């Protein structure tokens, strides 16, 4: 799986259509967040996911920590992929892998100021149970692990790409202006963005999405040439 572009934080059907019309195939839905402040209702997410074509993917972004709970919720939503953003144990990851070989599992690697070694060890420990890793950026001011709009040390991401036997999706503060350089430096298999594609009104901006895709495709072509 190469050169995937995911857009996360879809807030409604209109936004999903805009993103799909732009040519993006992977849509991320953060649901049942610990904050309780989901941007979309589960029923609207289900309706959007139901209408996706086989080459498109609805991705549940979740902090759930138990394999049974993740599996049940994925079935309810009809998603074929899940992005596990919490500190799920290796045991539960292994259980999820065993019970749901059909589910595409992404495990987050949330980069902090000083946790590179910890993340490299996590890659070694759980790689066999996941299909892809996804980096993200920790915000020490709020404790948030996702949708922070912040970049992190890309040398850490590049090291994670080199270490991982599984492909890596790069996320964390990507936007139309930095995505090409991020891809050149980190050489990920996939990229994801959320807040960097929003306009002042908090909705995804078609011009930003178009530029993001153009810049990303150019850089992917360079690194795979
Ligand atoms: O997207 C969210 O709202 C979200 C909330 C809580 C945890 C993770 C979340 N999203 C995960 C993603 O894949 C985001 O796109 C990723 O965090 C990058 O966000 P940004 O830095 O704003 O591009």
Q: Helical region count?
A: 8
How many separate domains? Answer: 1
Identify the overall geometry.
globular
Gap from first CA to last CA: 16 Å
Q: At the fourth CATH level, what is the homologous superfamily?
A: Aldolase class I
Number of strands: 8
Q: Mind describing the biggest β-sheet?
A: 8 strands, parallel, barrel
* Secondary-structure element series: EHEHEHEHEHEHEHEH
CATH topology-level fold name: TIM Barrel
CATH architecture: Alpha-Beta Barrel
Brief descriptors of the model:
binds ligand LARABZUK, 8-stranded parallel beta barrel, 225 residues, alpha/beta, TIM Barrel, 8 strands
Describe this structure in words.
The chain has an eight-stranded parallel beta barrel with strand order 1-2-3-4-5-6-7-8, surrounded by six helices. It has helices spanning 13-21, 42-50, 67-77, 90-99, 116-126, 154-163, 179-186, 206-224; strands at residues 4-8, 26-30, 57-62, 81-84, 104-111, 132-137, 168-170, 190-193. Helix 3 packs across helix 4. The two termini are 16 Å apart. Helix 5 links the parallel strand 5 (104-111) and strand 6. Helices cover 39% and strands 18% of the residues. The longest helix is centred in the last third of the chain and has 19 residues, at 206-224. The protein is built from eight helices and eight strands; from the N terminus they run E-H-E-H-E-H-E-H-E-H-E-H-E-H-E-H. The model has no long low-confidence stretch (mean pLDDT 97). With 225 residues, the chain is α/β, with parallel strands linked by helices. The radius of gyration is 16 Å and the shape is globular. 39% of the residues are buried. It has one domain: Alpha-Beta Barrel (TIM Barrel). The ligand O=C(O)c1ccccc1NCC(=O)[C@H](O)[C@H](O)COP(=O)(O)O is lined by residues 8-9, 28, 30, 33, 61, 85, 136-137, 145-149, 171-174, 192-196.
């Amino acid at each position: 799986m190469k050169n995937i572009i995911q857009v996360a934080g879809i807030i409604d059907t209109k936004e999903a259509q805009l993103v799909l019309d732009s040519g993006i195939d992977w849509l991320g839905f953060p649901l049942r967040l610990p904050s309780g402040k989901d941007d979309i209702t589960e029923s609207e997410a289900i309706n959007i996911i139901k209408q996706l074509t086989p080459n498109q993917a609805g991705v549940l972004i979740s902090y759930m920590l138990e394999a049974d709970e993740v599996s049940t919720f994925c079935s309810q939503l009809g998603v074929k992929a899940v992005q596990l953003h919490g500190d799920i144990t290796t045991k539960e990851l292994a259980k999820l892998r065993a019970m749901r070989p059909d589910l595409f599992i992404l495990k987050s690697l949330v980069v902090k100021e000083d946790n590179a070694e910890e993340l490299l060890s996590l890659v070694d420990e759980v790689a066999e149970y996941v299909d892809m890793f996804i980096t993200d950026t920790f915000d020490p001011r709020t404790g948030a692990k996702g949708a922070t709009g912040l970049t992190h040390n890309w040398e850490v991401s590049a090291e994670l790409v080199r270490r991982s036997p599984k492909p890596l999706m790069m996320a964390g503060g990507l936007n139309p202006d930095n995505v090409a350089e991020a891809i050149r430096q980190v050489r990920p298999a996939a990229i994801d963005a959320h807040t960097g594609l929003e306009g002042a009104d908090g909705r995804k901006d078609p011009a930003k999405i178009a530029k993001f895709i153009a810049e990303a495709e150019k850089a992917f072509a360079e690194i795979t040439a």
